[in-house]
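In keeping with the milestone schedule agreed at the kick-off meeting, the structural modelling team has produced records for the first pair of proteins. Each record is given below as a sequence line and a C-alpha cell line. The laboratory manager (R.T.) confirmed that both were archived under the project's standard naming scheme.
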Amino acid sequence: MNFLKRLFNLGVAEANDALDKLEDPIKMTEQGIRDLKEDLNKSLQGLAELKALAIRAKRDQANAVQQSRDSEQKAVMLLQRAAAGQLAQSEADRLASEMLRKKQESDNQANYLGQEVIKHEESVAKMSQAIQTLKSKISAYENEARTLKARAKVSAATKKINKQLSQIDSSSTVAMLERMKEKVAQDEALAESYSEINNETKSVDDEVNKVLSSTPDASALLELKSKLGLLGTGGGNAGGQNPNLLNNGGI
C-alpha cells in the first residue's frame, strides 16, 4: 500500500513538473494581455449599447415633451373655439379635459425619461472612465511585456553562455588539456631518451669520424699554434709531425 502511495505521489510530482515546463511565463503573459483586449472589446460594445440607450431615452423624452405641448395647445384651441361659439362649451370642456389628461401623461413620461437619461449618462461616464483605465493598463502591460520579453531573451542567452563556460571549466576540456600536456612532456622525454641511446650505441669509427669531421683545417691549426707560440724550435710541432707533411695530407 505504501509502495502504491509513493508511486502515486511520484506520478503527481512528474505531472506538476511537466505542467511547469509547459507554462511559459512569456506566453502566459501575452495570453493574459489578449484576454484583457477581449474584455476591452466587450466593454466597448457595452459602452456603445449604453450610449444607444441614453440617446433613445433622450429622444423619447423630447417626444414626450413635444406631445405635452401639443396636448396643451389643443386644449387651448378647443376652449377658444367654444368661446367663439364654434363649439359647444360642454363638448369643448370634455375634449379639453382629455387633452389635459394626455398632457399629464406626457409630462410624467418626460419626467421618467429624463431620469433615465441622467442614469444612462452617468453609467456612460463611469464606463468610459473604466475603459480608459483599462486601455492605459493594457498599454502599460504591453510595454512591460515587451521589455520583459527582451530581458528574457538576453537572460536566456547569457544563461546558455555561462552554462557552457561553466561546463568547459569544470568538465572534460581542462582535463583533456592536462592530458595533452602530459603526453607532450612524455613524448619529449622519450625523444631525448632515444637520442641518448643512439649516442651510446655509436661505434668507435663513428666517434672518430665525428671528431675528424669537426677538426679545423691543418694549416689553420698550425697558424693558430704559431700565434700562440706552441710550435717547437726544431721546425717540428707539438704533435711531433712535420707541418709540410700535414699540408700534403700525409706522412
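The second protein of the pair:
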Amino acid sequence: MKRPLTSHGSAYDQRSAMVFLAPMYLILGAVAVFPVLYSFWISLHDLKLTRPHRVPFVWFDNYLKIFADPLFWESVVRTATFTVSSVLAIMVIATLIALLLNEEFRGRRVLSAILLIPWAIPYVANGLMWKWIYDSGYGALNGLLLQLGWIDKYLVMLGDTDKTLHLITNAFVWKEVPLATILILVTLKSIRADLYSAAKVDGANVMQRFFHITLPQLVPGFALVMIYESMMAIRHFDLFFILTEGGPADASHVVSWQVYVETFRKLAFGTGSALAYIMAVATFVLAYFVIRSTSKKL
C-alpha cells in the first residue's frame, strides 16, 4: 500500500531538489548574473585600457557625460527611427504573409519553405549580401534600377546620408520578417473556427470578420513580435558595422554603434558599459509598457 507523503518527506524532497539544482544555479550565476553585475560595476569607473593601472571610481559621472553628449541624443533619435520603421514594416509584411499562408492553396508548403531562407542566413552573411546588392560598382539594385530606366547611372547608395538608414532598415526587415510571420501564423491557427462560423451566421462579411475577430485575436502575437523585434532593432549592430560603420557623416550612428566605438575603438570600457546599461534599461521599459498595454486588451 502506498504511504501518504508527509510534510517531512516533502521538505526532504525539496532539499534534494535544491542540491541537484545547485550546480545549474552556480553555472548560471557565473556565466550570466556575474557578468551583468560586473559590467554595471565597471560603468561606475573611469576604466580605459590606455591607462589600465589608473581606474578611479566616478560614481555616475559616465552616465552624466553620456546624457550631456549631443551625439548620444542624435544616435537615440536614429535608433528610435530605425526601430519604429523596422518594427512597423515587419508587422505589416508578416501579417499579410501570415494571412496568405493561413489559406489553403497549391504551393503553400513550398512558399513556407522559401520564407525561411532569410531567417536561416547568418547575420554577418546577410550584411555582406546586402552590401553587394547596394554596391555602387556592380550592385544588383543599381543594375535593376538602371534596366528599369529609373536611373541613368550607378548610384553610391550607402554614401547618401538621406538613404543610408532606410537601406539598412530594408536589410533588417528582410531578415526578420520570417520569424515574425511564424509567430503571427501560430496565433492565427489558434483562433477558434466557431467564431467565424457564428459571425457568418450573423451576416458579417470578410472585412467585418477580419476587424472584429482576426485582429483582436492577433493581439498576443502582435505583442510578442513587437517586443522581440524592438529589442532586436534597438541593440542591432551587425548591419551598421558591415554596411556603413556608422557613416556616412554619422548618418547611421545609432546607440549600438556608439557602444562599440566607446568600448573597442576608444577603449573606454566605463563609458561603453554605461551606454550598454542605458540601452538595456530602455529596452526593458519599452517591453514593460508594451506588455502592460496589450495585456489589458486580452
